[in-house]
Request: fold
Amino acid sequence: MDYLRYYLGAGIVCAGIAGFSLGGYWVWSGFATYLILLLIDLVLKPDLRPRQINMPWLADIPLYLHLFLMVALYGAFFHWASFVTENGSIPVINIIGAVLSLGWLGAVPNLPINHELMHRRNPLARTFATILGTFYMDPTRDVAHVHTHHIHLGTPKDSDTARRGETIYTFAFRATIGSFKDFIEIEKSLCEKKNQSFFSPIGRFFRAILQVSLLIGLAGWFGGAIAILISILAIFTAKMFVEAFNYFQHYGLVRVEGTPYDSQHIWNHLTPINRMIAFEITNHNDHHMDAFAPYYTLQPHPAGPQMPSILLCFLAGLVPPIWFKYIAKPRLKNWDFEHATNGEKKLAQEANRKAGWPDWISE
Reply:
């Protein structure tokens, strides 16, 4: 089971493929897996057991298989769009279902697998990661993630760290813009060292545009104008899902610039479904301690800062007052007293003041 559990991601992509193959209201199948997984995760106890993986190559299979499943998913979508438009119009409810299914599956399990592969040292894995980023409109995600987030997490320099009082809606756009700015700065610097134009056809910027354009172009080629519209909305939705889940990874945590980060600067979501479909991203501590450690070697740290299921957090985050009152504030208050250093307590007080939250440290 320590190997098979990580095929859950493949299973939900297959649900999306089956949905487009069946057509009609079945196109909602991909997105419906979110609600099913959420309900299951809510009744299960936290999973604190390390994995027993003796054959790493076997644990890597679902990572590389995923790209082919995503191609099959979009292939099924192209076929569905072509068939339906040839035989009449597509009901709006089914267009929404197609967008949400492609958007959800373009984020989960796509982002976790993309994330795992971008941290691998071999070129094939990183190539796969770059291609997978196309399905959520960000083939250059690895640049800012590795060179900015993993260095500056918990500080104002990291656009991937959500601030106290910040909503999921504003964060999604701020993180997207911040990540793109970091990419431009880092890529320009690299291009200068190579004596190469930032807009070179062999550069990352040009290739990223080409990849996304190719996906949308194939949608138009096979499915017509409606498929173009759905694919554009789907990859945008996937991008918003990606940033929405990113929102919870370090929410409200602070760190004094120049000091080393540690496990207290990272939230964990150690529920069973989270660990499976996220390929241990939610088992977050060890990943930041060693970014090159394969997902199956990460050890759960129940003593570190904990959050509930990230699937539940996402649902709560859609209604900010609920997220703040019942999840964010209680856990950050505990963090300020139990985990923060003296310097971080001062930063937390300032963050609470800016957010309009109570100054519980002084109280």
Summary: Residues 4-355 form one domain.
